[in-house]
Amino acid sequence: MFSRRLMVVAGVMVIMLGYSLYMPLPDDMEQPWKIRVIVMVVRQVLAASYYTGLFGLESVDRLARPLHRVLNRLGQKDDLQIFDTTFDGVDVQVYLPVTKKDKRPGILYLHGGGWVFGSPELYDDMTRTLARKVDAVVVSVDYRMAPKHSFPVPLEDCLTAAKFFLSNASTYGVDPNRIAIAGDSAGGNLAAAVTLRLRDEAPELPKFKQQVLIYPALQAWDFQTPSYQESSGFLLTASQMVKFWWRYAMGTNIDAKTLKSALANQHISTTLRQSKYSRHVRRDAVPKNFWSRDVKNFPLTTQVDSFSDELITFQKLITNPTFSPLMADNLKDLPKTYIVTAQYDILRDDGIMYAKRLEEAGVSVHYKNHPGTVHGFMTFTREPVTLNLGKRALEELVIFLKEALCNKK
């Protein structure tokens, strides 16, 4: 029985391999063959992680952490002291520049991975670059993840680490008034949620000077936004994203019927659709030049009369702003915000809508959409899968943070 399952898994992965290599891409996609290879690798890792989860094993990237750690140390300069520690019980990895300086800026980084995989080791290239080039102390949070640790555990870990860093910044030679919080994808979700929680729960702490949200996942209300429709066939699919949201929320794998309902936007009751929350997810915030000819403005109506107990629980979380930050009624008094999106990413419109709502709330926003690329492009900055646009975007972020955090005003 076990060998038969392995054969099925192998067969599925071979099919995915073939499709990824010959996947049609838009004409303006940068480095299309590298994109195909990256999509192939990511999909294999996601599939392997899913099936290892079914067998009760750790995800593939977690199993590979010791190897990542060794590879990350090879050929590196000695200009950073890198060590593991805990912030009030939460595991973190600290990148500390070795040159003497009175007070440095700090960056709290929350990695992506759909709340179910990823690690500081996997993000070493990005966090090391930020520490070195911004000349900042970077803290990469190794938060616990779903499905074993579902919402709100990952968020609570990140919030605990944030409070500790803000309270003990001077211990690490950091100016507490020059700290940014940053995250990508699911980490962008967590970063946005942490800033909301800190504003409401810890006004006595120093404020983050900047929040950086890199292609963040901010809502599970509408899975038919223009970007969900246009870009679901590339690196991150709508089906994968719904599965990630469900694992984060429920700590289980979503069943086929519920997945189909969510993809058709039939996962929310009519009463909830008619509530105040419908004003927070606005497709009209997406510029019309981002709507391709194939995009349809499907009405947000629900044809389903009854919902399972699990789906009712999921609906309650969807409107929780610490689960879905775009659903927050109040976005005032948040840190200055830097938002990055990718043109061919299903999460692009989440970032656009959040940027629009932040601006309407009086928050200073720097928004940048990168054409010709896909979700996750800024993490592919190391050969053999280096994306030139990812390297340029990371360099732009470095320049921005140096100016934003080194200004002591």
Write the layout of secondary structure elements.
Elements: H1 2-21, H2 32-54, H3 60-63, H4 65-73, E1 80-87, E2 90-97, E3 104-110, H5 124-134, E4 137-141, H6 153-167, E5 174-184, H7 186-201, E6 210-214, H8 226-231, H9 238-250, H10 256-263, H11 270-273, H12 309-318, E7 336-344, H13 348-360, E8 365-374, H14 388-406
Parallel strand pairs: 3-4, 3-5, 5-6, 6-7, 7-8
Antiparallel strand pairs: 1-2, 2-4
Helix pairs in contact: 1-2, 5-14, 6-7
Structural features, described:
With about 400 residues, this protein is α/β, with parallel strands linked by helices. The protein has 14 helices and 8 strands. Strands 1-2-4-3-5-6-7-8 form an 8-stranded mixed sheet, sandwiched between helices. Helix 5 (about 125-135) crosses helix 14. The longest helix has 23 residues, at about 30-55. The chain is globular and about 65 Å long.
Distinct helical segment count: 14
Q: Please tally the β strands and state the result.
A: 8
Give the spatial strand order of the biggest sheet: 1-2-4-3-5-6-7-8
Structural class from helices and strands?
alpha/beta
Q: Estimate what percentage of residues fall within beta strands.
A: 15-25%
Mean pLDDT comes to: 87
Unreliably modeled segments: none
Kindly provide the radius of gyration, computed on alpha-carbon positions and rounded to a whole number of angstroms.
21 Å
Overall outline: globular
Short description:
This protein has 409 residues and is of the alpha/beta class. The chain has helices at residues 2-21, 32-54, 60-63, 65-73, 124-134, 153-167, 186-201, 226-231, 238-250, 256-263, 270-273, 309-318, 348-360, 388-406, and strands at 80-87, 90-97, 104-110, 137-141, 174-184, 210-214, 336-344, 365-374.
